[in-house]
Specification:
Blueprint: E1 12-15, H1 23-28, E2 34-37, H2 39-57, H3 81-92, E3 96-99, H4 102-116, H5 125-135, E4 139-141, E5 144-146, H6 155-165, E6 170-173, E7 176-179, H7 180-187, H8 198-203, H9 207-238, H10 247-251, H11 256-268, H12 284-287, H13 289-311, E8 319-321, E9 326-328, H14 336-363, H15 387-403, H16 425-455, H17 464-476, H18 487-497
Parallel strand pairs: 1-2
Antiparallel strand pairs: 3-5, 4-6, 6-7, 8-9
Length: about 525
């Protein structure tokens, strides 16, 4: 099981150039924590900032310091680099849409400071210290969803975050939405003071894309575990045989991920007993679970590798290499890798929802569920059982299928054709995160069906894992008799399954929207 590690406020996450940032670290940024730079890292950041200033004084052409931005690179910059940077922030704050959750914007701040701390962006130490100070509080910038195309970095979202850290715009302090200036004051933070290249360094990276994708990876890992919990309980509720998860069968498939999932299913089903009279071969929604969930797990693993690499890279332009005496211009801010990975994750999550919805349908069908009542109604006809939950789950799956369209190929030229091809990784990552939320509701609908099935006559599980899970589901929601509104029951089950990660049948919350 994957559990969220809540940071200990008495300890610190230390950037030393060796420790790699993980998606779990990104998720933990939802809570206040201490982030510090080692002395060698601080020296590297200071050395890089000094080198940039030296090069500017020597007349070296440096994008954004001696030139305008984007297609305006052919024009000279404002004489005052601070004025130039403030103008950049101002024109970029043109975002639209709903505000992103604080969990996402705080994760974005951690991803950005980790990149800047690598000492290749030329930002000043006080800027990094200011970001670290904000993460030690409940402060979170208010950032609209739409504005980034995932190239030249997440410019608009990061400009809103930087503005909030300067006391402009809005921010959250915990759950309270305030003016940024008031939020800073209440948090005990000083407004950020920018120097030289600070403004461009703060916005010119794919930190929202990487952070949102990291959050989606963490949620997807829990969803895989929950899928196996529910599939195993379904097998026991129906009295199906577990031979479909035989290790030798899956080893022969040639896919280690399917074999790994089969082993996990076998562990959950240890102590289960099949029921005589079930078909020799179950429906694919049972029999092919190892193959389907194994493919999802492999996709999640790949996405995690890509996202982790991005979190520990430098997505900026230009990059500064003081030891080599170079300022190198390029396109590390082009978030194509994460865009592809997030889109793949989006598709995989949708297939998990397809599986859960089909398993729920099977469980409610008397022709396939071993004679349990239609729609798991306690009094068919007089009551409708889970008919409404079934409809809602189907609607959610249909929505997920529509939103599974890849973002990473939706390139549109913009910015005076300076950005003539873009990856839209930000949208891909945010959509994958939303798919996690939708999937949690579909899986919770299946969980409610399994709880109700036990009430209307399904076999009680004989495995320890199955008995524990059913007891947890039963203690979370009451049986449906008589009919009652069930929307809150589904949400309660989703929260319950995602809040405890120490035993089969539960993990921590994946809700970021």
């Amino acid at each position: 099981m994957i559990a969220l590690s809540i940071p200990d406020p008495t300890s610190a996450l230390v950037f030393d150039g060796r420790r790699r940032l993980t998606p779990s670290d990104i998720e933990a940024a939802a809570h206040p924590f201490r982030l510090e730079l080692s002395e060698s890292a601080r020296a590297g950041v200071a050395r890089c900032a000094a080198f940039v200033n030296e090069q500017k004084a020597l007349g070296t052409s440096i994008y954004g310091m001696s030139t305008g931005f984007g297609p305006l690179v052919v024009f000279g910059a404002a004489p005052d680099p601070v004025e130039q940077g403030i103008g950049l922030l101002n024109h970029l704050r043109a975002g639209q849409g709903e505000l992103l959750p604080s969990t996402v914007t705080r994760a974005m701040l951690l991803a950005r400071v980790w990149s800047l701390a690598r000492g290749h962006s030329g930002v000043s130490l006080p800027v990094i210290d200011g970001l670290c100070a904000a993460l030690a509080t409940r402060f979170a910038p208010a950032v609209p969803e739409w504005g980034s195309v995932g190239a030249s970095g997440d410019l608009n979202p990061l400009a809103y975050a930087t503005g909030a850290l300067r006391g402009e715009g809005e921010a959250f302090l915990g759950e309270e939405r305030l003016s940024a200036a008031v939020a800073l004051e209440r948090a005990g933070l000083r407004p950020l003071v920018l120097q030289n290249r600070d403004a461009l360094g703060l916005v010119n990276g794919t930190s929202l894309t990487a952070a949102a994708a990291a959050l989606a990876v963490c949620s997807a890992r829990r969803a895989v575990s929950i899928a196996l919990d529910l599939a195993a309980l379904l097998v026991e509720s129906l009295g199906a045989s577990s031979t479909f998860s035989a290790p030798e069968l899956l080893a022969a498939s040639g896919h280690p991920s399917a074999e790994h999932v089969a082993v996990q299913l076998q562990e959950r089903l240890r102590g289960s007993t099949p029921l005589a009279g079930r078909p020799l071969q179950e429906a694919y929604s049972i029999r092919c679970t190892p193959q389907l969930v194994g493919a999802v797990e492999e996709t999640v693993r790949h996405a995690e590798q890509v996202v982790t690499a991005d979190l520990n890279g430098v997505s900026d332009n230009p990059l500064v290499f003081p030891e080599q005496g170079k300022v190198v211009h390029g396109g590390n801010f082009f978030g194509q890798q994460v865009a592809f990975a997030a889109d793949a994750l989006n598709v995989a999550l949708t297939q998990l929802a397809n599986l859960a919805e089909r398993q729920m349908d099977l469980l409610m069908d008397p022709g396939r569920n071993g004679g349990l009542p239609l729609l798991l109604s306690a009094k068919p006809g007089a009551q409708s059982g889970l008919a409404g939950v079934n409809l809602a789950a189907t609607a959610i799956v249909a929505s997920m299928r529509r939103y599974a369209t890849p973002s990473s190929i939706q390139s549109l030229p913009t910015n005076g054709h300076n950005q003539d091809v873009v990856p839209f990784g930000t949208q891909a990552a945010l959509e994958a995160l939303r798919q996690c939320e939708r999937l949690s509701l579909v899986q919770a609908s299946l969980a409610l069906a399994l709880r109700q099935a036990s009430y209307v006559g399904a076999r009680r599980p004989t495995s320890a894992a199955g008995a524990t899970l059913l007891e947890r589901l039963s203690s979370t929601v009451a049986p449906v008799n008589p009919d009652r509104p069930l929307g809150e029951d589904v949400r309660r089950l989703a929260a319950s399954m995602h809040q405890r990660g120490d035993e089969p049948g539960a993990a921590r919350t994946c809700s970021h929207f």
